[in-house]
Amino acid sequence: MSRRYLALALPDLTLDRLRRQHPALVGQPFAAWASRGPRRWLTAVAATGLQPGQAVADAQAIHPALLLFEASPAADAALLTRLALWAMRFTPLAAVDGTDGLMLDVTGVAGLFGGEAALLAAVVQSFAAGGYRVRGAIAGAPGTAAALARTAGAPCLLPGEAGPEILAALPLAALRLPPATLQGLARLGLHSLGDALRQPRAPLARRFGRPLLDALDDATGARPRPIRPLRPLPDFMALRDLLEPITTRPAIDRVLAVLLDELCAALAAAGQGARRWVLRAFRVDRAVQELAIGTGTASHSPAHLARLFALKLDRLMPELGFERMVLEATGTEPLAHRQAPLHTGPEEAGADLTALAELLDRAAPRVALSRPLPLDSHWPEYAAAPAAPQAVPVVPTGWGGPIRPVRLLAEPLPVTVTMEEPEGVPVQLLQGTRQHRVLAALGPERLEPEWWGEDQHRPARDYYRLQTAEGPRLWVCRLREGAAAPRWFLHGELA
């Protein structure tokens, strides 16, 4: 199946944003401005007789009642991202295209809407109903669709076998080339794509650079550019379009339950489970809200997933209501089926492990859970790292040989040690104001620097295991640095 792309151009994005923020602007002359050095100039205009690029002072002389707003590219970009999320109600692959456009991969989607023409009409009507001036086009390459959408009066639908003559008639301004490049091409008498495509490529590249050739190849589909969707394509998805917008928590719970049952049934039929689940709620006012949950092990249990979502559903703000809800499953993997032991029924096999995994999932939002993961280092502080509770450890060769403390201090504590003789074993240890009498001592166990590591010049350590009269079994180390007296540290407690 050949790919199809739907491009949307929003030429009045800034003006539409301001009208939505300030409804009183409807029917009023207003403009957005930006600074260029000491000069202020118009970037977007909703007033007759004015145009972008004009000086603010000149514009005010023509329209004394002109309302001015400082341009905000960041606000425009944020709005464009929100609109791309909204466009995901038509296809899961939606991307921002430049500063004033969207690109949708609609391959295989048109049949759900009655054909490409009906799909294009539905998308354009949806944005127009939200107060956005939009032009759309569908073609076989992203650049082709974008060029058609940015050209007023151009065909909105380009069949896969159509036309070089249609593309050749498009103005070069549809390629988003820099103004200097467009002016240079115009001086050569090149005004349309056809004019530029009929020229030898080498002279064009020498005069205008590689970006011009890339733009031409993009527009013709000779070298189509990839799009970068806001969200990856989900492995499994379920959705519901609602006849009436829903605003209450019970209604949301019911729709979510239906989506979970449908999606989990599809996963179970495929022998799959998922680790990440995303609920996307589309509001009537074209805002989109997302909730995501994760599980430590792949799951397709509707009851367990419903409990995890229930912890987050209060974050949704329906306001005027949700008209569509989509549930996506990503991070899918095959679920292994365990054979039931002879002494248990099938329903009991693996039940303990499943219950533990679900308990850890429910506790994760409230408690930071982790397990130690062995690492290939004999330095105590580098011998393990925290990992997810369900992580499967890979034990390095030789790891875990010598006895190590059950509790390793994050920061070793300086202590004062009394020795039986200079090179003997400790007989007494002073930790702050606490004094420990040593009944038995084993050591030293010397740890040398790791020659393959970065810290090869750190001093060696001598570790001792001490049994104290007060009860605790302590792990202490002696650090020698040159001719200075050795220093002692408490590094952990043994079992």
UniProtKB/TrEMBL annotation:
Query: Which InterPro entries is this protein grouped with?
Result: DNA/RNA_pol_sf (IPR043502), SulA_CellDiv_inhibitor (IPR050356)
Specify whether Manganese is a keyword of the entry.
no
Q: Which UniProt keywords apply?
A: DNA damage
| KW DNA damage (keyword) present | yes
Q: What does the record list as GO biological process? A: DNA repair
PANTHER family from the UniProt entry: BLR3025 PROTEIN, BLR3025 PROTEIN-RELATED
Query: Which protein are we looking at?
Result: Nucleotidyltransferase
